[in-house]
Design brief:
- Helices cover 67% and strands 0% of the residues.
- The chain has 216 residues and is an all-alpha fold.
- Helix 3 (32-46) packs across helix 4.
């Protein structure tokens, strides 16, 4: 019987054999990378909880057995989708932190590029990692997303601490509070983008946010 949800206890014949056995069988009739990107867009648009396996198979253009054989269950597919999202749609964030010569310039670029990315045409607005957490009832997925958000804050803080060490920021600057401030601004920008804010409006918000940046 074909499964329609990830909680279905029934196991298909394809799932009863190991990965090596499946590889020796009939080759896939779909492009895995393309299907994964479609899953990214589905989760990005609707969040984790509201995106059913049926929604995913419809968006990806594959059957449930193919989804389970190629990606595992819905939770495993979502975890892979988050990684793909980071690589394809959110790489601007680590680049800004790594490439700019000062912490201020890095954060200013980060916010400016977030305004552009969160409102770009061709995909859902806002941030998948932030939106997918809404109304989520899976403890494992909640933890995955929490760890991802906290990793961002840790990266922001490391960049602030580099700024303190370089004398760009005051020696007594609260780098933890600054990092959380940046995260809060980005989270707000994501939600406002989903609510219809334009790129220009988010860029204006980013400019105001930078007005309080401490000087060394």
């Amino acid at each position: 019987m074909e499964r329609t949800e990830e909680t279905n206890p029934q196991v298909t014949a394809a799932e009863q054999v190991g990965p090596a056995a499946r590889r020796r069988g009939r080759p896939r009739s779909f492009d895995r990378a393309t299907a994964l990107e479609k899953a990214v867009l589905a989760f990005w648009e609707h969040g984790y909880e509201a995106t059913s396996v049926s929604d995913l198979t419809r968006a990806m253009g594959i059957g449930a057995p193919s989804l389970y054989a190629a990606f595992g269950d819905k939770q495993a597919l979502f975890a892979e989708a988050v990684l793909a999202y980071d690589e394809r749609h959110r790489s601007f964030a680590p680049r800004a932190l790594a490439e700019e010569p000062t912490a201020r310039a890095a954060v200013e670029r980060l916010l400016r590029e977030a305004a552009a990315a969160y409102t770009a045409p061709g995909h859902p607005h806002g941030c998948l990692v932030l939106h997918a957490a809404a109304n989520c009832t899976s403890p494992e997925v909640e933890e995955l997303l929490r760890e991802r958000r906290n990793a961002d804050i840790a990266a922001f803080r490391r960049r602030m601490e580099e700024g303190v060490a370089a004398g760009e920021l005051p020696a007594g600057a609260d780098t933890g509070a600054l990092a959380r401030y940046v995260a809060a601004v980005i989270q707000g920008m994501s939600q406002q983008a989903r609510d219809g804010a334009s790129r220009g409006e988010l860029e204006a918000l980013a400019e105001i946010a930078m007005a309080i940046w401490p000087r060394g």
